[in-house]
Hints:
The structure holds two protein chains of two kinds.
Chain A: H1 3-11, H2 26-32, H3 36-64, H4 75-110, H5 119-138, H6 166-195, H7 208-239, H8 253-287, H9 294-307, H10 324-349, H11 358-380, H12 383-389, H13 393-423, H14 429-455, H15 472-501, H16 540-545, H17 563-567
Chain B: H1 2-26, H2 29-55, H3 84-101, H4 104-126
Helix pairs in contact in B: 1-2, 3-4
Amino acid sequence: MTIADERKDLSHDEGGHEHDHGGPKGIYLWLTSTDHKVIGKSYMYTSLVFMLIAGAMAMIIRAQLTGPNNHLVSQQTYNELFTIHGSMMLYLFAGPFAFGGFANYILPLQIGAPDMAFPRLNALSYWLFLTGGVTMLSGFFTSGGAAAFGWVSYAPLSSYSNAPGAGPDLWIVAIVLTGFSGIFTAVNLITTAFYLRAPGLTMFRLPIFTWNMIVTGMLILIAFPILTAAMIMLYADRHFGAHFFTVSGGGSPVMWQNLFWFFGHPEVYILALPYFGIVTEVIPVFSRKPVFGYKGLVFATLSIGALSTGVWAHHMFTTGTVLLPFFSALSLLIAVPTGVKVFTWIATMWGGDIEFKTPMLFVVGFLVTFVMGGVTGVMLAAPPIDFAVHDTYFVVAHFHQVLAGTAVFGGFSGFFYWYPKLTGRMYREGLGKLQFWMAFVGFSLTFFPQYIIGLRGMPRRVPVYLVSDHVTFLNQLSTVGAFLTGASFVVWLINMLISWKRPVAAGDNPWDGHTLEWATSSPPPHHNFVTLPPIRSARPLWDANHPEHADYKSPGHGVEFRDEEVNK
Amino acid sequence: MKVEYRIYMGIGVFVLLITAVYFFWAKEYGGVTMLFGVAGLGIMPALYFGWWRKRMDPRPEDSETATIAESKGVIGAFPSNTIWPFVLGMGAFLSALSLVFGEWTLVIGGALLIFGAASVTLESRRGGVI
């Protein structure tokens, strides 16, 4: 059946909305569905649950650090908490929320496709993600406790004599399972974006979100196989007497760091690029302007992807075994395309008719937090500074502002932006804004003091400190901020509950969106589209809704169309 | 297919360049090996897309002036509901757990894995639920 026939069929069918395939319902539907929308939502809600669990761990960590020499949790428990907090946030929330959740749901809609290219592989990747997450958490229920060697699991801390028991093995298995789920999703995303685009939607008309997901997919395919290989070596070291990372057997512990960060640094961009894409979708819509410098943004994304493979050892400056000028230079270079992106975001807002709805507020929060984290990242790329503050709270503050700045602020911006599309309901604007201000103030209050704590020399991963370290007050400020941030998520849950119990219909296109996902109903019918507008620019829906201001009429657009040519 | 080919080729060639610089400057072979592998991960898909670019008909999604009605032929087979990915996932989960808890979970997991893989293949061949 051709896509045109299929759309004709659907149009006979009263919107295709109630269109019943005679399929299963309820939990059996959830178990058997291969629809990218069902899987995308499952991914999103599962990863948000993981985020709440990992966030609760962060609250315990902050409570432990409220006073000097505090004994809320034991030192071993503290180690387990920060290990699983980091692992869950990175492997189970920030990544899957974006490339499993948003990309799964939105990417096929943005390119006018009926589904992902490999629907059953998509379902399999969700099950691997869910079981991987469960495996990681189940470490807490073993007699030896969960893994306690940090999310980077440096050798020799992760050897069997230093980390005995089932918890660390469960952690390894969890990483391998979620790693495979990421690889499958990446293959799916790239194939879908390359082969299932609607007619007329050339690569340089793709929405920036889709572009970023393509580059993210390429990075996942580069990074995750190396992580999986490293995990297999680690398991062999622990159980089969191999000596990849043990000095006594002729191995090299620094080799673990090389392997891990060769995955780990592209991973940072795997976590960040999707949220850059979300932000680039939100800003033009709420500024009522096309995105500034479309091609510049695309090439900036591609060069971030290309450069990210050559910077891994900037995490290892203090090992003394890496080529400092090479890695420092490449790390500083990454600031250039990132700067181009920040510039185009601000230029898109510049002179626009900005509407500060919740998604847009979160974007502004993202910009402030991310730029702050990015600037300190440039500082850390200089070896003299890195030698001074390596493994202190300065670094902790830096990567929380970068990663949580993108994943939380960028992520919630996208969540509120697409929530009407996902559910057909509207969230409550006031509660959304309240959540933003609580999260933003709380988040800044948590991490700005941590820069100073780090400069005063407090190392990361320590559960106690002394009165004479002069960090007590700053740590207390940080804890207050953390609990305020935590409370903002309660506001979010209340918002979701209210919008679920007392739904307000959102309509198909509440934001006057630009891209194809708003051209279908909310939530979209089975196989997504009844009709598609003609695609003549990067903003097909804007062109269709505002023909007098259509992009294809603007001079310098390249191909010029007359209206009758477009609508034939 | 031209743009798809070029982005992969561009990243592959760029990483190859970085590999060469790193090889002559750092003289550290672990990093060179990993970088060379990454260059391959860019160049191999690029060659595949380049090969297809020469052999496939021009696609409406690559044309700036195509109309929606121009998409001809079968878009693809999209299965509606199937339990086998879940069975496969549980099989992979239980098999992986055998690394922690011993071989007994591999017995259950491996059985589910074989059963699920066979069923999912037969499902594609028969058409069936798809």
